[in-house]
Amino acid sequence: MKGPLRQAVLLLIFISASGTVIAGNSDQAREWLERMATAMNQMSYQGTFVYVRGGTVETMRITHVTDETGVRERLYSISGPHREVIRDRNGVRGVIQGSSSAVEDDVVASSYFPDLPLSALDSSSSSYRLVLRGKARIAGQTARRVSILPQDKYRYGYDFWLEEQTGLLLKWVLNDGHNKALAKLMFTDFSIGSAVDVDELEPESPAEDFVELRTYKPVMTLAIQSTPRWQPLSLPPGFKLSSHSNKSGPDGFFEHTVYSDGLAAVSVYIEKRGSDVGVRQGVGHLGTNNSYSRKQGGLQITVIGEVPEVTVKTIANSMARAVASN
């Protein structure tokens, strides 16, 4: 076999072998994420963690118990504004000081612990790639690192560190397109099973101070009951309509839609008010969330979500073109 031909054959063999390694790595990464999802729901654990988002640093403590009575969980703050959240068979309720109902959007108010829709992540049309990486020592435990890497500029990626024996989550980092950390959570102490002190499930705040809290999952199983009045002419790859609601009255018209790629989600608001209320236009930031507002044909269009700035601008401008075409 001549030199150039031999090199070409070796190159094809290398590419084929590399593809097999990458596919296997992706399958292993998914298995670790499946272990994490199961462990975080079915095991009992307790610990203190530090949560960093933007310029905010919080120290929190969580107790999660799974037994014959079901799942019981208590999360409360050690530093910063007083926060206490209880989850049991009666639902999710909390005491959250220093928050405003104006920012309680389902997309913005994300959990400390991301809820991963694995079926969306490993589909053939997924906008993400799963990678299994090395090990690290966290909270006295050995952890395996799993990465969720975005395939384009329209979404963020995650790194997860999972306890090697159980798959429990010990650390996660939200990264932008340049691999810069936007938010992170890391346990500083951690215990599981019989070492968990169930007495810490008892709330400190009076029962009358708790209010019911809503949670949001990007992949929604409910069918869309109505068609939005306005839809963007085009969307970034992978994003689809997840939910829709609207209302109208003497004060004007309001429409809210959510678009998701299975992991990331954005809210789109279109408002027409009876009086011209001044709203700041352009790009805004709220923690790791970006927003973009603009006016079009007497309507105010606002897009917000935990996605890159280019994503909210792309959707808002496409929505404006859709409004203009009508």
**Major pleated sheet:** 11 strands, antiparallel
Distance between the termini: 66 Å
Radius of gyration: 23 Å
Structural class: alpha+beta
Mean pLDDT: 82
Supply the CATH architecture of the largest domain.
Clam
Helix count from the secondary structure assignment: 3
CATH class of the largest domain: Mainly Beta
CATH superfamily of the largest domain: Lipoprotein localisation LolA/LolB/LppX
Helix content: 10-25%
CATH topology of the largest domain: outer membrane lipoprotein receptor (LolB), chain A
Q: How many DSSP E strands?
A: 17
| Overall number of structural domains | 2
Name the strands of the widest sheet in spatial order: 6-7-8-9-10-1-2-3-4-5-11
Global geometry = globular
Give the SSE string: HEEEEEHEEEEEEEEEEEEH
Q: Ranges with pLDDT <50 over ≥5 residues?
A: 7-23, 100-109, 218-224
Tell me the β content: 35-45%
Please give a handful of descriptors for the protein shown.
single chain; 326 residues; alpha+beta; outer membrane lipoprotein receptor (LolB), chain A; Phosphorylase Kinase, domain 1; 2 domains; six-stranded antiparallel sheet; 3 helices; 17 strands; 42% strand; globular
In short:
By secondary structure, the chain is α+β, with helices and mostly antiparallel strands.
Question: How would you portray this structure in words?
Answer:
The protein is an alpha+beta fold and 326 residues long. The chain folds into 2 domains: 3-212, Clam (outer membrane lipoprotein receptor (LolB), chain A), CATH 2.50.20; 240-325, Phosphorylase Kinase, domain 1. It is 19% helix and 42% strand. It has 3 helices and 17 strands. The protein has helices at 3-42, 118-121, 309-325, and strands at 45-53, 56-67, 70-77, 83-88, 91-96, 128-138, 141-150, 157-163, 169-175, 181-192, 211-212, 240-249, 252-260, 265-273, 282-286, 289-296, 299-305. The chain has an 11-stranded antiparallel sheet with strand order 6-7-8-9-10-1-2-3-4-5-11, covered by helices on one side. The protein has a 6-stranded antiparallel sheet with strand order 12-13-14-17-16-15, covered by helices on one side. The longest helix has 40 residues, at 3-42. It is globular, with a radius of gyration of 23 Å. The chain starts with a helix and ends with a helix. The model is unreliable at 7-23, 100-109 and 218-224 (pLDDT under 50).
